[in-house]
Automatic annotation (TrEMBL), chain A:
Protein's organism: Streptomyces spongiae
Name of the protein described by the UniProt record: ROK family transcriptional regulator
Family of this protein: Belongs to the ROK (NagC/XylR) family.
SUPFAM superfamilies per record: Actin-like ATPase domain, Winged helix' DNA-binding domain
Cleaved signal peptide residues: none
InterPro entries, per the entry: ATPase_NBD, ROK, WH-like_DNA-bd_sf, WH_DNA-bd_sf
TrEMBL record, chain B:
InterPro entries: AAA+_ATPase (IPR003593), ABC_carbohydrate_import_ATPase (IPR050107), ABC_transporter-like_ATP-bd (IPR003439), P-loop_NTPase (IPR027417)
Source species of the chain: Streptomyces spongiae
Keyword Nucleus among record annotations: no
Superkingdom, taxonomy of origin: Bacteria
SMART domains found in the cross-reference section: AAA
UniProt cross-references to CDD domains, sorted A to Z: ABC_Carb_Monos_I (cd03216)
Protein's name according to its UniProt entry: Sugar ABC transporter ATP-binding protein
Amino acid sequence: MKAGPSQEEIRRHNLGTLLRHVHIGGSMSRAVLADRMGLNRSTILGLVSELTSAGLVREELPRDTGRAGRPSLVVRPESDQAYVLAFDVGVDRLTAARIGLGGVFLDRREARMRPDHREAGQVTEVLADFAHQMMDTTRQGTVCVGVAAAVRGMVRRPDGLVRAAPYIDWKDEEFGESLTRRLDLGLPVSVGNEASLGALAEHLRGAGTGCQDLVYLHGDIGIGGGVIAGGQLLGGDCGYGGEIGHMVVNPRAGRPCGCGGRGCLEAEAGERALLEAAQRDPSATGREAVRAVVEAADRGDISARAALHDVGDWLGIGVANLVNILNPRTVVFGGTLREVFLGSAAQIRSRVNSHALAASRENLRLRVGALGDNAVLIGAAELAFSTILAGPLEALARTST
Amino acid sequence: MTATPILRLRGIDKSFGPVQVLHDVSFDVHPGEVTALVGDNGAGKSTLVKCIGGIHPIDGGEYWFEDEEVQVHSPRDAAALGVEIVYQDLALCDNLDIVQNMFLGREKRRGLVLDDATMEEMAAKTLEGLSVRTVKSIRQQVSSLSGGQRQTVAIAKAVLWNSKVVILDEPTAALGVAQTAQVLELVRRLADNGLAVVLISHNMNDVFAVSDRIAALYLGRMAAQIRTSDVTHAQVVELITSGRSGDLGLATTNGATA
Ligand SMILES: Nc1ncnc2c1ncn2[C@@H]1O[C@H](COP(=O)(O)OP(=O)(O)OP(=O)(O)O)[C@@H](O)[C@H]1O
Ligand SMILES: [Mg+2]
Ligand SMILES: [Zn+2]
């Protein structure tokens, strides 16, 4: 029989939970923390002072003091002291950010990626360069507590092997491992799928805050997906779960898909399908191109309208399936699907209302992402923060060697 | 989704001279939700909203607010209840700045002088609370703002007064796609923060993107009030153009209600 958790394990758990509360929720008083964590005030006091001496939180007067009464101190994350590095490997763009505890962007770099510079080795070099630039500017005593990267591909759990990232021609790439070696920070680089991380970000800080069951659809060159079920990211057996873009909606008469299949949601409702249906250059993908179609439709352009109508129809069919299987509270449209959603919500909703089961859809909310183009980076940062949030003091001890 | 409406109208009639514009209209508005009010040009949407806002006196019917029957004879009465309206013919003064517009007619004073500091702070806080980051300075003249920013200021003005119900008459009609998206997100955020929001729009994508319920007016009668999760685009279009769709809507289109 397993014994209950030790004092030590409880303490570690409580420290992590407290840190997570102020990391996600922002500054709050000890009384609020005691209430949210269900602990008495003296326990909270002890936890706060431990985290304070570790340099992870600080107590101070709230900025915005109400007129009446004596303001009580709030516990605030030390955003300048502890930070993570987050990377986003896009299809034509590399982005990096240094993000402080509490989710504050402290620094940010971006570079366009030429099609002939997409090899994992070259990407690793650029990201390492960004990392060093951003770390050079930090003050003494600040500490990097995690690193994570997002890729548009299938990422194996737990080792982060990138099995396939078709849009940048990667196959079985040991990307996490080589970036870890190249950065040499004594921290393993976690790797995640871009839409899974987007889902995490919208769940923790965006349109799905407070919602434990959420589906995130990310429009990019393809359609990525991420599922939060019961507050947890759904990965499946090896981490490949959530590939909503390859949900088969039209296998018989459908369009060919980049995966080799036919009639996947991404093939029917992705940017290329939209642009082609709107009689535009299907290779000129990206936000501007998608927005131009929505604008043209708004001005009455017939082919743009028909294209959005069709794409909305397929998206609605896809969402209806997801609603029947997962019963999410919120479905979030991010990336360029934000524009597509706003331009075809009538079709999407109509399909959902026709095909999703009445009980499953009655509390369903369809929302656009609240984090805009930062969703993926923010999600990567949250992945990078997970170690210190699991055991703050242990994680710090490991980094300060 | 709350069960009890904050605002309930029952049997509202309204005529202008010999012309009856609203016939026996019922209308419910729920906190935490966006209710889309739709209908063809001339269906009576703006008139209904002006009755709610106390601009037009109603000829008959009941006006219930938070489970009490109330009498609303003026915009002041509506404001006292916590009902704010952003009218279709947007009432912002071009030659005044954002703060002056938000407090127009309801200025804060300290003794005899205007309390600019408090007004600035309240205006800034309201805009910040709505996550509005597009305006550069709150002392900017309204004439220098884009259409979307003007709508944003008008909406901020409506929520400044701890209002409970905010009614927006075609806030996106004159806007481009990007600005419409911003205003719709703002509309959604207001409801997610607990306000009851009424959105009048002719754009079915806007309606389906943000609403929780749809109320369709047809020739001055309320054809149906339904949950957005229970109808299709085609059904709503039918309700707008003919007052009925299958089991939904008016029993006959030339008189009695269902
Ligand atoms: N002050 C008024 N005096 C006389 N008739 C009026 C007045 N205001 C509105 N009406 C009439 O009432 C009817 C309903 O008008 P209302 O403005 O409420 O329609 P609406 O549904 O808002 O239309 P739209 O979509 O075009 O804004 C119209 O026939 C209009 O001409
Ligand atoms: Mg009108
Ligand atoms: Zn596919």
